[in-house]
Amino acid sequence: MSKDFEDILQKIEKYRIQHNNTFTDKIMENIHSKIEEILSTSVKYEENKDILSKIEKYIDLFITSKIGGLITLILLLSIVFWITLTGATYISDLLALLFLKIEIFPTKLLKFLPPILESFLMDGVYKLLAMVVAVMLPPMAIFFPLFTFLEDLGLLPRIALNMDKIFKTVGADGKQALTMMVGFGCNAAGVISTRIIKSPKERIIAILTNNFVPCNGRWPLLIMLTTLFLVPLIAS
Questions:
Q1: What are the tens digits of pLDDT across the range 118-127?
Q2: What is the rounded distance in angstroms from the CA atom of residue 89 to the CA atom of residue 103?
Q3: What's the rounded Cα separation, in Å, for the pair 183 and 188?
């Protein structure tokens, strides 16, 4: 390396230190301004006067607004919950009936076993597994595809952006709104989805608070407790 080139590098480094990295910023600004200049001379944007594009523009303005974003979040959650709870009821009944019909075959096969072992395998293992699958599988099979569909539409990132200011007031991240929505389907999936949050502190907040979101495994218990305690109080 020649001495002149070393002198130039030293001068550049000295300038960078004195101006607090503004030398690099200046280079990047010049590059971006040059790109903008080339784009302005070579690319022309025409306003789309299509009715559908105007409708889409108004929808975007509503979803990204403060009040509109909150209304959209509540409305979408309500629709997803209604479809999930209504659809899962019929599927759960069909699965429960199917497992009840299938129960005849393993019962005949296990007749040669002692009664205690047969009761353990049928009344303990089989019926418990059948109940868990019949209760938990249908809501998850409906909720998560609907949630994925909303994400493909691009609504969920906009909701997270809109909810960011609200969550920032309590030291959290707007993306936590999405992890909490996933938590309604399954808390484990909600905790895993917190990896989209970059800050370790905000990620820990999202993980801890996600445990308080009632997942579909807790919904039957909550409905049963509500029926047992709240309905008699209201009736009296």
A1: 788 887 788 8
A2: 21
A3: 7
